[in-house]
Amino acid sequence: MKKIALAAALALGATPLAAEEVLRGVTAFATGTTFSRPFEAFIERVNETGAGVVQIEYVGGSEAIPTFELGNAVSDGIVDIANNTTAFYTNLLPWGDALHLATNTVQDQRANGCFDKIDMLHQQQMNVKFLARTGDNIQFHLYLTKPIEGPDLSGLTIRTTPVYRGMFEALGATLVRTAPGEVYTSLERGAIDGYGWPTQGILDLGWDEQTKYRVDPGFYQVDVNFLVNLDRWNSLSDEARAVLEDAATWIEEKNAENLDINAAELAAQAEAGIETITFEGEAAETWLGAAQREGWAGVEEIDAEIAEELRACLVD
Ligand code: 173
Fold it and tell me: Which residues form the signal peptide (predicted)?
């Protein structure tokens, strides 16, 4: 393709075209599932709008690079662009947990300067450009194989990531951290009594077969981010960067669709036999209070200054 473009340009007597840039992209989630889908739509968009300028070659998911290794891989330039959530790269960005404590949207964060702050911190501390945030309007839940009466998780072994750790620990759970790829077999073996996961994606992964209850209300807000190796980002032409930035804001607008997708997903969970345990009144206050308190306490403990700065622009 490059050769043809060059030959065509020469034949026309024009200046040869700048070589088309090709970025290798990897997702932290299974390909074709909920949290890879926006990245896949973004790649398709870039490959259309960036023809002759920049293309993304979709290498794959956690079978290509293990989930918790993807942060290192994009930081080191082994991967050029990654679809990843902060909970999977806390080794590089320990305060990253702040992102899912946001109560506003990525559009708000672009408008109030928060996005630039988050981008700058990613660049400085992780050598990546923070290009886009997907997952707005999706919350997290606790899913269980056995019922509970109230917000007391003592005696339960729960699969976690850093997202839920502080909250579930404060409520008494015993925690095991695993990548999403290990959840199904952990449930099947009875090694865990439940797991934290967002509203969307359970059926996609087949986990409904092993899940009996979802606990409501949900808490926090999903962040699944597109990260570009900073050296690679800086090596791109302005035109290539513009293609990527345009596709980034295009995919972020689609975050609004999550409200409808959530409704369909909750209906499908009920259809699949997953019962809802809903905390109300004092129980709901304990549940959500633990989420907020422990979430921010964790970030403050890591970096009080960043916590204060981000809280001011992530929380309405
Ligand atoms: O539970 C998880 O693996 C997790 O932390 C997460 C974060 C964002 C989207 C999906 C899952």
Answer: 1-19
